[in-house]
Structures are given as C-alpha cells and as structure tokens.
Amino acid sequence: MKKFFPLIIALTALSLTGCNNSQKGSNTSTTTQTERDTQQDTLTAQKAGTLKIAFVEMDSVLNNYEQYKEMNSKLEKRSIEGRNQLQAKINAIQKAGEAFQQKLQSGGFVNQTAAQMERERIMKMQQDAQTLDQRLSEQYIKEQDALNEKLYNTIKEEVEKMNKEWGYDLILCNVKMSGLLYGNASMDITKEVTERLNKAYAAAKTEDKKK
Question: What residue spans carry the region label Disordered (predicted)?
Fold first, then answer.
C-alpha cells in the first residue's frame, strides 16, 4: 500500500491589508492604474519608513492551533483504518495462498479444474487488494487537499479580521525558513495570531453545539 502522509499545509506567504497585487499582475501583460497606485504607495511608504510589516511562524501556529490538530488527528485515524482494512485483505491472501499450496502438494483437489478455480479466486483477491490500495490512497490525498484548502482559507480570513485592528500593511509567514531568513522579534506576531485563531475556533465550536 502507498505510504500515507500526515496533514501538511504549505504556506509560504500571506499578503493582507495594503499589499499590492504585483505577483498576480506578473501573469498579465498590463498593470491597472489601481495596481500602479498601490505599488507607488508601498514604495513611498518604504522610503518614508512608515510601512508596517509583521511575520508569522506558521510551523509554530500549526503546532498550537487546535483546529489543525483536530483535523490532522481525524485524517490520521482514517488513514489507520484504511491501512488496517488493506492489511486484513493481504493477510487473507497469504492464508489462502498457503492453503492452496498445501492442498496442491497433497493432492487435495479433485481435478485440475478445481485447482484452477481456486488459483483464479486468489488472483481475484489480489486484484481487489490492489484496487483498494489505489482507492484509499486517492481518497486520502483528496481529503488531505480539501482540509489543507479549508485550513488555509480559515487562517487567511481570520488574520484579515485581526488586521483590521492591528493595521499592518504587510503580514508575511514562513514554513521552515522558506521565504523569510530573518525577522526582528518585535515584528513577530505568531503568538497573537495563534491565540486569536484558537479563540475564534472555540467560539465557532460553541456556536455549532447550540445549533
């Protein structure tokens, strides 16, 4: 069976309030006046030293974010159930194969046709196990992608809400040093983001229970 991987969300950078759309604009041949104005405002702010920037250590957020931990736990549980289901089929195939060899060597089959039918039955079991392996792997990847997308959108939306209070022009995030080699500790808002995310998730769970 293909190896199941734990839930991983790859977040390299979040551009929030006041960020320009130059990354998206690079895919087109023209730049809108709004984008040019935003870029100019950003450059002006940078030169004036007034651009407010913060960063988030996403590894730390995920390690302490209750929604992520619960999602990861559920996905891993389904992965284990799938592995157990497949292993049961593999064990049954091995047992049937051993029984077939013993019966064949001892002349236990009434004729060649009976032996051939048993051989084909075992081959069908093997094919079913391979089909299950592929189905479980595809299902796991599909669920993993869906959960990653949900988690990304949730974090992005919550941080945007937080930033209405904080007023940063740019909030960056990194995963295992990707995209951010250094950041002044005074610009690190990881703890605040994690606390607010957990608070929002707890409130959402409470609301769900009331429904």
Answer: 21-40
